[in-house]
């Protein structure tokens, strides 16, 4: 047998709940669910302001009384490839990977013996080291700088103009270093734990994948049908396909075809020893003559590219056979009459 057969019951349904292949919360760790403390980095443009307690010091001239305050703004500087900036009378200051407050304290210490009670303020003018990219099916793909207060996935999607496809068939992926995780957009809305904080250097990719299933056999509609719902169940899918035809369908023979993870089948008690590979072709059988199965089908979630087949009843197959026999019989019975008509027509033409 090249497929596994599973009878669908209310006890089986929970074992085959739709499995989230990856999770932002699990993939990147719950310990990183807090807003990142953004540090200065290479490529950032920063401004250093130096205050002195009174005029006549190192940076503030004697005529500072006409100035709005005893401070000076040094020219904006871009953190170089070595992570350094330069401050007069302090020399090269390492800033990459450090917080602004740490840099301020170091500059103050180096100026303590030269300036009058110096106080330093370091301000980020433009941040190039704390950027994230958001691409794909959003209205305004862009590279964005992170807000120091912290921003989550949906915040960045909103800043990119939102998604341009239905949420139930839109997937969001995050690449962070050598890790990648993907979830359905609707999961970000429904489950706050999945809406994690974005960190510098992350790449967000939004991708639309049309979610469909196929319906064949004795159902009202045959062909490819769109989900139009993020949590479509087997019962709802049968309804969208026009239900079971009273004149043709066998309610006891409703099947769903899907590839299922080998470990999931094993946990459900299915013998998978004859199968190789991680995915096993599986046929779920639903006997709709059993009233309890209607409740099970309303909890059994459909997955993208599932196939539903509704078998014809025995009476429908018998009717098709009898129609075939009747057609053959009518053709046989009409052969002599057709021959006579043909011969008469030929004689008329020759005379």
| Mean residue pLDDT | 86
Total strand segments: 17
Helix percentage range: 10-25%
Strand content: 25-35%
Question: Which blocks of ≥5 consecutive residues have pLDDT under 50?
Answer: none
Structural class: alpha+beta
Shape: rod-shaped
Q: Strand order across the biggest sheet?
A: 1-16-15-17-13-14
Rg to the nearest angstrom?
A: 36 Å
Q: Provide a count of the helices.
A: 8
First CA to last CA: what distance?
A: 70 Å
Taking the sheet with the most strands, its summary is: 6 strands, mixed
Descriptive report:
25% of the residues lie in helices and 28% in strands. It is of the alpha+beta class and 351 residues long. A 6-stranded mixed beta sheet has the order 1-16-15-17-13-14. Strands 9-8-12-10-11 form a 5-stranded mixed beta sheet. Strands 2, 3, 4 and 7 form a 4-stranded antiparallel beta sheet that branches. Strand 10 and strand 11 (179-184) form a beta hairpin. The protein is rod-shaped.
């Amino acid at each position: 047998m090249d497929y596994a057969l599973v009878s669908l019951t209310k006890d089986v349904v929970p074992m085959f709940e739709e499995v989230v292949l990856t999770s932002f919360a699990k993939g990147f760790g719950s310990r990183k669910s807090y807003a990142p403390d953004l540090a200065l980095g290479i490529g950032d443009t920063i401004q250093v302001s130096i205050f002195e307690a009174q005029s006549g010091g190192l940076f503030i001239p004697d005529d500072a009384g006409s100035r709005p305050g005893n401070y000076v703004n040094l020219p904006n500087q871009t953190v170089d490839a070595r992570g350094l900036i330069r401050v007069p009378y302090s020399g090269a200051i390492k800033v990459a990977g450090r917080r602004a407050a740490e840099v301020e304290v170091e500059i103050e210490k180096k100026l303590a013996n030269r300036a009058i009670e110096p106080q330093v303020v370091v301000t980020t003018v433009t941040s190039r080291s704390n950027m994230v990219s958001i691409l794909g099916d959003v209205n305004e793909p862009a590279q964005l700088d992170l807000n120091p207060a912290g921003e989550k996935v949906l915040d960045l999607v909103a800043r990119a103009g939102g998604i341009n496809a239905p949420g139930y068939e839109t997937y969001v992926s995050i690449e962070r270093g050598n890790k990648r995780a993907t979830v359905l957009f609707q999961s970000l809305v429904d489950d706050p734990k999945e809406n994690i904080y974005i960190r510098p250097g992350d790449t967000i990719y939004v991708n639309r994948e049309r979610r469909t299933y196929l319906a064949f056999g004795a159902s009202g509609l045959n062909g490819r049908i769109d989900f139009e719902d993020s949590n479509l169940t087997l019962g709802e899918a049968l309804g969208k396909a026009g239900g079971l035809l009273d004149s043709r369908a066998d309610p006891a023979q409703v099947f769903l075809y899907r590839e299922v993870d080998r470990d999931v089948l094993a946990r459900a008690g299915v013998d998978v020893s004859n199968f190789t590979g991680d995915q096993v072709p599986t046929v779920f059988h639903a006997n709709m003559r059993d009233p309890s199965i209607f409740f099970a089908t309303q909890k059994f979630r459909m997955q993208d590219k599932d196939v539903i087949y509704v078998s014809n009843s025995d009476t429908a197959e018998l009717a098709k056979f009898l129609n075939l026999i009747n057609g053959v019989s009518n053709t046989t019975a009409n052969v002599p009459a057709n021959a006579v008509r043909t011969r008469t027509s030929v004689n008329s033409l020759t005379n």
